[in-house]
Amino acid sequence: MATIADVAMLAGVSKATASRAFSRAEMVSPATAQRVREAAEKLGFVANNAARQLAGGRTGIVALVVPTLDNSFFTPIIGGAQACADAAGLQLTVVVHNLAHSGDLLAFERLSRQVDGFIIVAPLGTDDLVEAVAGRKPTVLVDRETEGVSSVVADTGTAFGELAAHFIRSGYRRLVYAGGPAGSWQDRQREAAVRAAAERSGVEVEVVGPYPPTFAAGIGAAAEIRSLKPDAVIPYATALGLGAQYAYLSAGEQPPVVSSERAIVQALGLRDVPAIDVDGSELGRMAAQALIREIESPGAAPQRRRLRVPVEWGA
């Protein structure tokens, strides 16, 4: 069976150059890439996945873009997308970029020459920026929807509406929604759902924030939350809620009921506390599947898919 060394010898290039011609074609001249491709085909090396990708004008690499690695929410999304990409014979590369300013487009322009498509988690970027990036390569958005771009969204808006309705049915009348980062698409969905549930029952909900989805931000938000004397709090993110609870307890006060994640509720043995969980691994898998469809079917109509998010009620 032919090897990369055999291809390199026949093409008259180094082994490293032949390898780059398969994995990073933009790094070699078109003439060199052509010689390597012809040598590979002559030797039957085209059976190799990298060569097949090259023959089809692809790199075999897709990029998953996240705004930060500090937020553990993205970890299972990466894992799910990686597993799906592996099964499809694709290499997934993770890139940290928040896509918040027009100057960021230059980085995406460079990246677009190295990959076949994007899975983008960009909660704060404007629609114009997201659409500009999506116009370069097949793209799937995660946790936001923009006209003309395929997306996969965890339906936390519906889940947060259910949380608010549950609290109201349970007799809570002073609700606070602790909002997430300014400009966040998901934050807008969650706040709107909480407000709608409250309005249907004739209950007012106070909104505080915006806040980063962190424990430290929750501690900082506690003073504003405490001033409203809520019965129940629905935080944008679990870490935000835990920070607020910690501040209450540090001040020697009993915190109100705060919705959380199932793992936290179970670990602390909490009762009557609703829990909401997003299956990040499934979200990542769905996004990778959608991107593969975009790559394999250029010109296909964009699709929007939503992942149901369950809400569990504590014992």
Name the structural class: alpha/beta
Give the second-level CATH assignment, the architecture of the largest domain.
Answer: 3-Layer(aba) Sandwich
The helical percent reads 40-55%
Number of domains: 3
Instruction: Please give the largest β-sheet.
Output: 6 strands, parallel
Alpha-carbon distance between the two ends: 62 Å
Mean pLDDT: 87
Number of strands: 12
Order of helices and strands: HHHHEHEHEHEEHEHEHEHEHEHEE
Beta-strand percentage? Answer: 5-15%
Please write the CATH class name of the largest domain: Alpha Beta
CATH superfamily of the largest domain: Response regulator
Low-pLDDT parts are none
Total helix count?
Answer: 13
CATH fold type of the largest domain: Rossmann fold
How would you explain this protein's 3D organization?
The chain has a 6-stranded parallel β-sheet with strand order 2-1-3-4-5-11, covered by helices on one side. It folds into 3 domains: 4-55, no CATH class; 61-153 and 281-309, Rossmann fold, CATH 3.40.50; 156-276, Rossmann fold. With 315 residues, it is α/β, with parallel strands linked by helices. It is 47% helix and 15% strand. Helix 7 (127-134) links the parallel strand 3 and strand 4 (139-142).
Quick synopsis:
With 315 residues, the chain is of the alpha/beta class.
Note the topology.
Blueprint lengths: L3 H8 L3 H9 L6 H14 L5 H7 L5 E6 L7 H14 L3 E6 L8 H8 L5 E3 L6 H8 L4 E4 L7 E5 L1 H14 L5 E4 L6 H16 L4 E4 L6 H13 L4 E4 L2 H13 L6 E2 L3 H7 L6 E2 L3 H17 L7 E4 L3 E2 L3
Helix pairs in contact: 1-2, 1-3, 5-13, 8-9, 10-11
Primary descriptors:
Rossmann fold; 13 helices; 12 strands
